[in-house]
Amino acid sequence: MGKPLEVLQGTLDMLILKAASLGPLHGYGILLRIQQISNGRLEILQGSLYPALYRLEHQGWITSEWGESENKRKAKYYRLTAAGKRQLQAEKEKWSLMSEVIDGILSAVPEEAR
Amino acid sequence: MTPSMMRAKVRSWLRSLFRRTRMEESMDAELQFHIESYAQDLMRGGLSSEEALRRARVEFGGIEMQKEECRESLGLRLWDETRGDITYAWRVLRKSPVFTVVAVTSLALGIGANTAIFTLAKEVLFRNMAVPHADRLRMFWWARGPNTKAGPAWGSFSRGRPGEMAGTPFPYALYQQMRAHNPVFDDLVAFKDLYKLTVTADGQAEPVDGMLVSGNFYQVLAPRVIAGRGINPTDDTADAPGVVVISDAFWARRFGRSADVLGRTIQLNRVPVTIVGVNAPEFRGAKAGGAPEVFFPIHLQPQVIPNPRGPLMSANSFWWLIVEGRLKPGVTDAAAEAAMQVAFNSAFHATIPDKTEKDRPRFFLAPGSRGLDVQTDDFKLPIYVLLAVAGVVLLIACANLANLLVARAAARRREISLRLAIGAGAWRVIRQVLTEAMLLALLGGGLGLLLGYWGRNLIPRLFEDSWSPRSIEPQMDWTVFFFAVAATVLTGILCGVAPAWRSTRGDVNAGLKESGQMSTGRSKATLGKFLVVFQVSLSLLLVVGAGLFLRTLINLRTMSYGLNPERILLFALDPPKSQYSTEQRAALFQRISERVDALPGVQSGTLSGEALLANNMDDNCYEPIPKPAGLPVQEHVFVNTIGPRFFETFAIPIIAGRSVNAHDTQNAPLVAVINQRMAKEIFPGANPVGRTLTECGAAAGTPRIEIVGVSADAKYSSIRQDVPATLYLPYLQSHDEDAGAMTFELKTAASMGSIVAEVRRAVRSIDKDLPLLDVRSQTQQIDATLTQERVFATLTTTFGILALILASIGIYGIMAYTVSQRTNEIGIRMALGARAGQVLSMVLRETSLLAFTGVVAGIVAAFGLTRLVASMLYGLKPNDPLTYGAAALLLLGVALTAGFMPARGAARIDPMQALRHE
Lengths: 114, 918
Prior knowledge:
The complex is a heterodimer of chains A (114) and B (918). Chain A has helices at 12-21, 27-37, 46-58, 82-106; strands at 5-6, 25-26, 42-43, 62-68, 74-80. The N and C termini of chain A lie far apart (36 Å). In chain A, helix 1 crosses helix 2. Chain A is an alpha+beta fold. Chain B has 918 residues and is an alpha+beta fold. Chain B folds into five domains: 3-75, no CATH class; 79-127 and 378-514, no CATH class; 134-369, no CATH class; 523-561 and 790-918, no CATH class; 576-769, no CATH class. Chain B is built from 28 helices and 24 strands. A six-stranded mixed beta barrel of chain B has the order 5-6-11-8-10-9. Chain B has a six-stranded mixed beta barrel with strand order 16-17-22-19-21-20. A four-stranded antiparallel beta sheet of chain B has the order 15-23-14-24. In chain B, strand 5 and strand 6 (204-213) form a beta hairpin. Chain A binds chain B through residues 26-28, 45-47, 50-52, 54-55, 57-60, 66, 69, 71, 73-76, 83, and chain B through 4-5, 7-9, 11-13, 26, 29-31, 33-34, 36-38, 40, 59-62, 65-66, 69-70, 72-75.
């Protein structure tokens, strides 16, 4: 396993929404969850996490609540809202469409070679 | 952006704004939790607790920067920066209190003037009747040509198409017929505005305006009633008991808003009626600018205002009732007019069968949201002129402030260059300068709104006669508030945009390198100089306007009217026709006249059908009998009915023959006095005394009127009008049954105050219920007709002085600034041998060049604009050279005075100090 990948520009919001859709998580938890699911192959810069969380909450896609963490400390938990669910669905569709198109382009072969 | 997201954003923004502390604490705690959790995980990997925490912090990165980015995510950055700008601007303003006071005061005066005049304009030009859906109301009008003989009309008229007279009154039967055949209106209402009824409540009589209304008036128009009920259709029937709805003002004045007013009886012209309701204060009848206080059914007309024609409801060819209706929703004006034209035409022939198609007026509809509106056209031009004048004052204040701000921005050039150099965006710097201008504008606007609130009552006061009830009561409301806010914001932008633009322009390097004293300062103040020129030209425009209106007022006040108005007391009497027949009225006038003329202190007394110089007149057509060959056979002349000693009282000379005297009674031969103008027109070159005339078209055998005297020309109805051909008839020989109030004129020896009480007592001893109407002196009467001229002279002079003050501040500011920027240069000049006088004249030359350019530009603007007010001037042309010359000299003088102090300062510069000053 080499050096972890950096998050592709513009996909951080989608990843955060996905992580939050799996159940309420605090900011640090979201970071760990994404790393865990990706088997540590994806690294999120800590500095970009919170501005993104605040932006998503500002747009009404996630909502936050103070609760108690695993080790009995107060932590702020984020949860997906209904609008967030719709947004996640839209971004997922856009992503698969986009990766399909890009795959197609990348797998093209020279005309004459056919 | 979807609406739900918009809502989420606004909610989130407001939450973080109003719970800022909580938001900040929560953000701190959250980031802290993150770092500590990470540190714990690192400790599990075997690091010591200090080392783990240190690594966690390092990897997390700059906390403050992340917090800033989080705040930006919440949309708080603009807010935070603006708050910073405001704090900074506030500190700067507090550091220069003189500047701030001058700026805020000038803006407050500008915005206040605009607010006050806008309030007035809204009231006079745009206030709708206080009823639901006023926009769907339409007023019924007709227009008739000179040969259309549809019957006599009572009401207000205006000009229609060329050659036509347009009017609003309709006969009752015609109204009813149209009402029955109306497919496009909810319903039609009829009303009539009545001037000065004698209303008696609790034994006290008072002249009060009233309104006759059809029985459906309150149901169809639906004005708000705050106590009791409106007039009902059942009230407007022949046998119904008399009822009245009173205005809120009358309720407050006469009954102290007592709750038991309903059911009480008051008298309208001696006819007892029962109060059934009270109007809401905002409803002021169906005539724009009017303030009727008693509303009662049309069926009361025969008792309350009897007419020799009998009940006017059955006078089918007498045009007197105003008709209005509310369009059904969705009906277009064209369709409504077409439908009502058909209804009108058939109703006309059905109700006035003896008239032919040739006699039928042309019917049309006009907007009726303001009710019967005959004043708006007269007020339009003056109000627009006032709005323009106030706008110019605000522009001057803006230019002044912009100028001061530009000078300050230039002084802060190094600071701003530094900020730009270390990476502040240009937009950021512009915002900062704009914030300062906006803060000044807001302070000025707040103060201006207060001034406007106070001035809203002041300006209408200027328009009023001292003896009439207030008719204009402008109300402050949201529109006024929004107007003031819009004016303020616009002011802020106008004031701030020039300095803001100026501050970011130019080379940053040069700005940093330049020393405080720029040796090339002269070229740098171009924008400021342009603003001063602009200010001077606008000021000249205002001063010219003030001069024109002032001279108009002086011309009107000092010209000869052909009569002596000094020390003449006027009052009117209008004995109710329900009580006095025409003959009895004449006898009453005669008795009262004899009584008051004999009062001590009265030198000479008389009476007339129309008060002089009160914008009222009667006219009629007369023809000489026998007809002189080759001369105009008949002529429309102004007519006044007068009592004995009329000419003596007003000191109008009798040129030939005699004046009307006490022997010219009902039983004596008919006589008349004509003025010189009429003599010249009807009997040119001949002596008119002894000639006779009659009314045009009088039946053969009608007694002729003998001309017994010729008087000198004297003004009649209006000061502005040339003396018209005038015929004076003894009032005792006049048989006009429609005649209204009679005005008594008493020439007094001394003070009028004491006489009024005597006159009141004398009249009361003859009829204790007869109130004295419109008590005033002849000079007050003249002043009242000059109200508009006086208001204009007062306001434009005030604004002109204000403009001069602002202009001198502007000139002083720009010259002081230029001199301070050139201290160095002037020092060198003086070191090289320039004398103080030369420096002084150099600076003054620059000042006068600015002023002269502004004056020339202002004269050009004034030439173009004053033509628009030509109709408001008297005795001079809008391009009156004397006024222009005086205004130009005044401005140049003010400019040189304002520029003198900086010039003297420059002349006193000590070369040694100036050179070391670097």
